[in-house]
Amino acid sequence: MISKLITKRDLQIELAPIKADINLMKWMLGAILGLAIANFAKQFL
After folding, report:
1. From CA 36, how far away is CA 6, in angstroms rounded?
2. What whole-number distance in Å separates Cα of residue 23 and Cα of residue 16?
3. pLDDT of amino acid 45
4. What is the pLDDT of residue 3?
5. N or C: which end of the chain has fewer CB within 10 A?
6. HSE (CB half, 13 Å, CA atoms) of 30?
7. Please, is 33 exposed, middle or buried when counting C-beta atoms within 10 Å of its C-beta (0-12, 13-18, 19+)?
8. What's the rounded Cα separation, in Å, for the pair 21 and 25?
């Protein structure tokens, strides 16, 4: 039985799309929260 070793570089390549998706979700969440706060402020202040 041959075991395959995974290098740190291989792992970085595989995780890059996941990290990009997480960064996009953080940006979208920030934008949504900003709009919600602006909407709240407009209604009540």
Report:
1. 44
2. 11
3. 79
4. 74
5. N
6. 6
7. exposed
8. 6
Rg (CA), the chain: 20
Phi, psi of 12, deg, nearest 5 = -60, -40
Measured CA to CA in angstroms, residue 30 lies from 4, 24, 33, 36 at distances of 40, 10, 5, 10
Quote the tokens at residue 6: 């995974």
Per-residue pLDDT tens over the stretch 1-45: 567 888 999 999 999 999 999 999 999 999 999 999 999 999 987
| Tokens read off for 41 | 């402020």
Element (H, E) at 32: helix 8-44
Task: Go through the chain and tell me how many residues it has.
Answer: 45
